Every structure is written in C-alpha cells, then in structure tokens.
C-alpha cells in the first residue's frame, strides 16, 4: 500500500547514542520463522553516527507486529547482553519515533478507535464538557490550600467562571457564565466530601476501604487498605518523556499513605481528575497507567495511581502492571506510525507525494453515529481513501458515508484533499528540530538572582550564560520559551505562558543547567485544518462552497452601513493604517457576505485584522445601544433588590445584544451578577416575576431597523412577566414602529396612562433627555413600596 516517505528532516539532527535515553537507527529487518512461538523480527540497529558498530534487536510475541521499517529511529528499554536486545511479552519495550511525544489522553483514546485518535490530533476542537472539565480542574487545584472548604470552592469557582480566561471559549461555544456556574456548583459538594473522606478520616479501620495490588508486593492474601492523602506535591505537573515517547500534564501529584494490617507505606502517585460519567472505563484507567510511566522520569516507579470522579467524589485505585504498560506502549507505537506517515509516495510511476490512508474505519455504525470526529472521518474517507484501491471500508458504512457527504461535489472533495496535502507539507517543512546551533535556542544557561513571584503561582526568573558571552539569537521580548533542564536525574520541561502557572525553578539545585527554546505554540496548521473542515460541513456557514465560490457582493456607499455616531470612532481606528490597509477595511465594512484579504508576508495583514475586529463593533454601537437606558435598568434593578426582591426573580430583556453587554457590565461593576440579562429570543417559553424591557431606540430620523418591527418578538417581550412589567423607551421614537405604536395607544386608552407626565427624573437623580419616559404596567396588585 504505497511506499511510505522517509522524512530526513526528522532524522538528520537525531543524535544516536546508548544509555538511559538511547537512540538507535534501524538498518535492516529480517523475518525469522519460529515454529514454537511464531515468527520473529530481527532488527540490525546501530547507535553510532557512522552507522557502524551494529547490534541486534529481536522482537518476539506480539512485539513482532510493531510497524518498524529500515531508517526508523527507536528507543529500547530492557537488558542488552553481548550486543543483543530481546523484546518479548515478559521483558523490554521498543519505542518507535521516541521524539514524537504523544499525550496519555491521545494514546488511551486510541483503544477503541485508532482512527479517531489520529483525527483528534489533526482536528482539535473544544466542547462544553471539555471547558467545564478545565474549569473544575482549576477550581480543584486552587482549592488545595483551603482543604476544599465548600464556601471557598464556591468563591474560587465563581472567580474562575467570571474571569477573563474562559470568555473567548464561552463565546465560541455560545455559552453564558451563569449556566456554566450552575453546572459547576453541582460538583462542589462531592469535592468537599472527597477531601473529608480521604484527607481527614484515614485512621478509621473500615472507612473507605479499597483493593490495591502493587506489582512489587508479590502475592499477598489481603489486598484491602485505607488510603490517606497527606500532601499535594504538584498541580498539573508537566512531564515530557523522551524515553517512552510520551508527554502529559498530571492533574495532581500527591503523597499517599497506604495503610494495611501489615503496616503503612508512603508513595508519590498521580491523581487523575475526571468530570464526566463515573465509568472507571479502560480509557480512564489506561491514562493513569501511562502517568505511572511518566513519573519514572522524575522519581521512583509509583506502581499505581488514582482516578477521582468529581461528580460523585468516588476514587478508584489503578495498578500499573507490566502487561498494561506493554499493551499501551504498543498502541502508542501504532499511533505514532500513522501520525508520522501522514503522507506517502504514490505507487504509480510518477512517485508523487500524496496523502496516506488513516487507520481503518471500525465496523460499528452505532459508535460512529455519536463520534465527535464522524464528519472528518467520513470526509477523509470520501475525499482521499476512496481513491485508493487498497483501502477497505466496511460495507455497512459505505451508504452512511455517502449520505453524510452527499452535499459535496467532486470539486469540493478535490479542494479538501489538495489543501489537506498542502497544509501537511507546510507542517513537515517547519518541523526541523532545534539544535544548540540554532538562533532560536540558547543553551548552557544558569539561573541568577532571587526568584520574584509576579503573581499567584507565577514566577519571574533571570538567566545568564554559564561560560562565555551570550550568542546571537532571534528571541525577542515577549516571545514564549520552553525551559528545558539538562539534568539526567530530573529531565523536565516547562512552557512559560501568561495564562498558566510557571514553575518556581528555585526548587532545583543551584548548579542546574537550563536551555531556552523558542516556543511556537500550537501547530501552525491546526487553525487552517479546522477551517477546512468547517468549510465542508452541510451548513449555512459553508455557503461559499455551496455556491461554488461565488463572487462577494458589496454595498455601494459606506454611509448606508455606518451610523453618523460611529464615524469618528472608526476614523480613530484607521489612523495607524496605511492606504492599502484602509482600503481593505473599507471593503470589509461594505461587504454583504465575505471579503478575502491577500498580502505577502510583512505587508500588515495581521495589523489590518486586529483593526477590523473593533471597527464593525463600533459601527454597531452607534445604532443599537443606549447607555442612559442601561443606567436606568441598573437603578431599577437595585431598587427592587433593596426592597426585598430576589435577584433570580428579575429578568432584563432587550432585542439588542450590545445593549445587553452594556447592562451586564454595569451589573458586574455594581456586584449584581445573578440577575439574568438576555435577548428576547432567549426568553421564549420562560418567565420571571419582574421583567424590565429596554427598547434602546431613541432616534427620530434615520434608519429604523427591523428588530422592533417584529410583533412576535414584542409579544414575547411583554408576556414574560408574572407580576410586574417595566418598559423603558423613548415614546416618540417607539411610535415610529407600528407594533409598538399600537401597544402604546392601547395602554393609553385602556389604562389612562399619560406618557408626558411620567418622567424618569422622579426616579433617578440624573435625568436623561426629555424624550425618554418610563412606563410601568402592573399585571397584579404586587408592587414595590
């Protein structure tokens, strides 16, 4: 099936060596038939750069299936006798492409479907559950100093949810802070109960007994024990293991006392937090097993770890035995093979580079139906693999794949495969390893001066060259760097990041040698691949493809889309741009659908895009927000709460999102964050005791807009209140909208309300313009006095 392409860029800088972190190059492979135990693979390998001084590696039993080929770099664990390594079910490990570090999560997710794991590495995405899990992890980690007191956990969770860190992700997922906080609070009592059970009641003989078998204990009759968590040694311990080709962030590294009848044993173990369903599944357990391997990079083998389900507070022990580790490392090798060989040479005469096949599609239509990578899986199968004769697709899935991709034409599928290949080639060209001779790397560094704590959990470090002058470097102020520690007994890696804690390096020995590498962040093709996938979806967002890349449509005059109030603000945004950048900005503002901005590197595309983000927002502000009304809403809300109303009984409604943003900001500044502020559409089918409606519009001429013309929206807005409805608006302006004009006339005739005499100046010390009036309509005898 195709001749796999060897990527010299990955091997040219690989230093072959023996020892703990050995690196061998495979020179040749010989298959030897054995009648008793099946065939063996005999690998001729070398750790010499000259490719001489060869050794022999024999792969027996299931290790025979490792997809190793001549030219590969491998790492070997075990014993070497007289230049011969023997890797079998009982001893030794072989790690394929050890410098390709895969996370424990990725490897464990490949157990049921290798294809899904590969696609998840290529097409990264977020979800509601992933974000909630991240917030809960952070809350748990911050709650350690307080021993997980319930009140403190609530405070930490509220601060995390309402902080700026997760706002972007919430926006992308169309989630509100209030609904996220409501779900987070369901977990907090269980976290407190776990702390009470495993941190404060360890001495009780029959309390929370569990069965734990450590491999080093041999045969023991009674596996039951009590677990006491005595200390938290690290939070999100980031370990990269070039021995096992693994990496991972261990949620919590804990010191544990294991109490048995025969005595007490102390161990440092990984604690993995899970926020999903309590399943104690093979994927969850496998992740802990892999973390026991990672721990060996820093300390003695923990032999086991723990799974903690935050929803219930239940904790399970997971033993890291030889068999589980062996099978997971074999899975890791298969996964590394597919990720490494994402492209191959065509078997045809032209030998062109083409996309390689992915792991086979599993024959389980039910599992595929609920798979998060179903779209990308079927798309790749249809666009790439169906053109290959050697790729077999389960017959039952063929009609399902056709149905899911039937909206795509042949030209669309060719577009996908072409740009997937282009992005893969681009990624390959940028993956050369940095050496000490590179100007993106500075080695032989030592830490000087005292460590300064910049903020909670973040530290400021100073480095200088141990010997000689500082070499020339491409590093600039503000660049992210990876700090590598060149200590054999403590090989660790940290990534400096303004959003994460940075390790206090003063804990390391004073003579520790560091190396700083430029950190380029997430792979440069992640976002383009994600966009490419989105373009292929059967949704309105992919209208460009559905219309075969129709030419964009533009409005003729900028004045028709830019309100007079916003012109000065937008002009200020344009001040720092050159003429071509301003022209690009204008075209975007005039666009009805989309605009493509093309420019060579260094011509200012990023600057233009950064300026584009606030410009349409400012244009929108001129017509759909009213700060005076927002302040009135705040005043009325505060008034009702002081009079005894619950904040949860008050709802604030507006048809305009910008107005809601202003109101929310005012509420937050006034510490009133539990009042629900939402659009009319979001209140469909729901109600509150008190509803305050902000109509916003106060223009007597110009564009009316369409939102207030919709009588259905108006009907929803005025029927959400159980007891009291308060409408805020400028009467002359609202009378220009037929539905609102009818409503105001009806209220005037039925309830004898004189709009001219009910002025807001009687309610607040700062009065808006005389055109704004307050109209109160009580639907019952309930009132505030």
Describe this structure in words.
Residues 617-730 form the DNA2/NAM7 helicase-like C-terminal domain. Pfam families: AAA_11 (PF13086), AAA_12 (PF13087), Dna2 (PF08696), Dna2_Rift (PF21123). This is DNA replication ATP-dependent helicase/nuclease DNA2. The longest helix is centred in the middle third of the chain and has 20 residues, at 410-429. Helix 21 (627-642) crosses helix 22. It contains 25 helices and 27 strands. It has six domains: 3-99, OB fold (Dihydrolipoamide Acetyltransferase, E2P); 128-333, no CATH class; 343-429, no CATH class; 441-518, no CATH class; 551-621, no CATH class; 625-778, Rossmann fold, CATH 3.40.50.300. The strands form five sheets. The protein has a seven-stranded mixed beta sheet with strand order 6-7-4-3-2-5-8. Strands 9, 10, 11, 12, 13, 14 and 15 form a seven-stranded mixed beta sheet that branches. With 785 residues, the chain is an alpha+beta fold.
The gist of it:
This protein has 785 residues and is an alpha+beta fold. It has 25 helices and 27 strands.
Strand arrangement, major sheet: 6-7-4-3-2-5-8
- Computed Rg: 32 Å
**Beta content:** 15-25%
Helix content: 25-40%
Query: Could you tell me the mean pLDDT?
Result: 81
The number of strands is 27
Biggest sheet, in brief? 7 strands, mixed
The count of domains is 6
Secondary-structure content class? alpha+beta
Number of helical regions: 25
For the termini, the CA-CA separation is 82 Å
* Large-scale geometry: globular
Unreliable sequence segments: 1-10, 433-437, 487-502, 617-623, 757-785
EC number: 3.6.4.12
Pfam families: AAA_11, AAA_12, Dna2, Dna2_Rift
GO molecular function: 4 iron, 4 sulfur cluster binding; ATP binding; DNA binding; DNA helicase activity; endonuclease activity; hydrolase activity; metal ion binding
Cofactor: [4Fe-4S] cluster
């Amino acid at each position: 099936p195709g001749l796999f392409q060897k990527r010299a860029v990955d091997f040219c800088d690989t230093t072959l060596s023996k020892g703990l972190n050995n690196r061998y190059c495979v020179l040749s492979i010989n298959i030897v038939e054995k009648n008793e135990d099946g065939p063996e693979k005999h690998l001729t390998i070398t750790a010499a750069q000259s490719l001489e001084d060869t050794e022999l590696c024999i792969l027996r039993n299931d290790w025979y299936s490792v997809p190793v080929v001549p030219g590969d770099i491998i790492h070997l664990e075990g014993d070497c006798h007289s230049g011969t390594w023997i890797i079998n079910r009982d001893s030794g490990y072989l790690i394929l492409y050890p410098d390709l570090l895969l996370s424990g999560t990725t490897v464990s997710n490949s157990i049921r479907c290798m294809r899904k794991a590969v696609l998840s590495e290529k097409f990264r995405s977020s979800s509601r559950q992933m974000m909630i899990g991240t917030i809960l992890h952070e809350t748990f980690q911050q709650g350690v100093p307080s021993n997980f007191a319930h009140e403190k956990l609530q405070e930490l969770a509220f601060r995390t949810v309402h902080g700026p860190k997760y706002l972007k992700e919430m926006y992308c997922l169309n989630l509100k802070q209030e609904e996220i906080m409501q779900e987070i609070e369901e977990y907090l009592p269980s976290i407190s109960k776990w702390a009470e059970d495993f941190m404060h009641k360890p001495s009780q003989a029959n309390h929370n007994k569990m069965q734990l078998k450590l491999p080093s204990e041999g045969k023991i009759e009674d596996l039951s024990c009590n677990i006491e968590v005595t200390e938290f040694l690290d939070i999100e311990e980031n370990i990269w293991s070039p021995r096992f080709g693994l990496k991972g962030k261990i949620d919590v590294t804990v010191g544990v006392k294991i109490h048995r009848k025969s005595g007490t044993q102390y161990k440092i173990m990984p604690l993995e937090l899970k926020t999903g369903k309590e399943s104690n599944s093979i994927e969850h357990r496998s992740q802990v097993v892999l973390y026991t391997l990672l721990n060996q990079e820093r300390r003695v083998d923990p032999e086991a770890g723990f799974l903690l389900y935050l929803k219930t507070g239940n904790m399970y022990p997971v033993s890291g035995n030889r068999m589980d580790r062996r099978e997971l490392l074999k899975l890791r090798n298969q996964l590394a093979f597919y990720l490494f060989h994402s492209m191959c040479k065509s078997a045809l005469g032209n030998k062109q580079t083409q996309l390689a096949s992915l792991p086979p599609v599993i024959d389980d239509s039910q599992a595929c139906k609920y798979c998060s990578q179903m779209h990308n899986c079927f798309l790749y199968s249809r666009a790439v693999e169906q053109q290959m004769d050697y790729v077999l697709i389960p017959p039952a899935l063929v009609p399902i794949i056709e149905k899911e991709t039937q909206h795509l034409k042949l030209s669309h599928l060719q577009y996908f495969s072409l740009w997937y290949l282009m992005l893969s080639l681009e990624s390959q060209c940028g993956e050369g390893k940095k050496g000490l001779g590179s100007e993106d790397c500075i080695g032989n560094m030592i830490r000087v001066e005292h460590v300064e704590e910049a903020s909670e959990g973040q530290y400021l470090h100073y480095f200088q060259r141990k010997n000689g002058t500082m070499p020339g470097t491409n590093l600039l102020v503000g660049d992210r760097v990876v700090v590598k520690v060149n200590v054999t007994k403590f090989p660790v890696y940290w990534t400096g990041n303004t959003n994460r804690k940075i390790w206090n390096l003063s804990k390391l020995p004073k003579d520790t040698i560091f190396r700083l590498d430029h950190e380029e962040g997430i792979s440069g093709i992640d976002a383009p691949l994600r966009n490419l996938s989105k373009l292929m979806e059967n949704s309105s967002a992919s209208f460009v493809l559905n219309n075969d890349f129709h030419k964009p449509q533009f409005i003729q005059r900028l004045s028709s889309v830019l309100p007079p109030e916003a012109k000065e603000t937008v002009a200020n945004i344009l001040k720092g741009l050159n003429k071509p950048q301003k022209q690009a900005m204008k075209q975007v503002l005039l666009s009805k659908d989309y605009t493509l901005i093309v420019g060579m590197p260094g011509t200012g595309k990023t600057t233009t895009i950064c300026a584009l983000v606030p410009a349409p927002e400012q244009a929108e502000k001129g017509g759909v927000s009213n700060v005076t009304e927002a302040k009135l809403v705040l005043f009325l809300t505060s008034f009702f709460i002081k009079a005894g109303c619950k904040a949860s009984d008050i709802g604030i409604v507006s048809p305009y999102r910008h107005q809601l943003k202003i109101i929310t900001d005012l509420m937050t500044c006034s510490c009133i964050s539990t009042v629900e502020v939402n659009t009319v559409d979001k209140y469909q089918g729901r109600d509150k005791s008190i509803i305050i409606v902000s109509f916003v519009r106060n223009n007597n001429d110009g564009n009316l807009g369409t939102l207030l013309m919709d009588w259905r929206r108006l009907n929803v807005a005025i029927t959400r209140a159980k007891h009291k409805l308060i409408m805020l608006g400028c009467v002359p302006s609202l009378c220009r909208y037929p539905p609102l004009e009818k409503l105001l006339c009806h209220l005037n005739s039925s309830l004898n309300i004189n709009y001219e005499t009910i002025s807001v100046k009687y309610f607040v010390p700062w009065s808006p313009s005389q055109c704004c009036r307050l109209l109160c309509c009580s639907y019952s005898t309930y009132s505030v006095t």
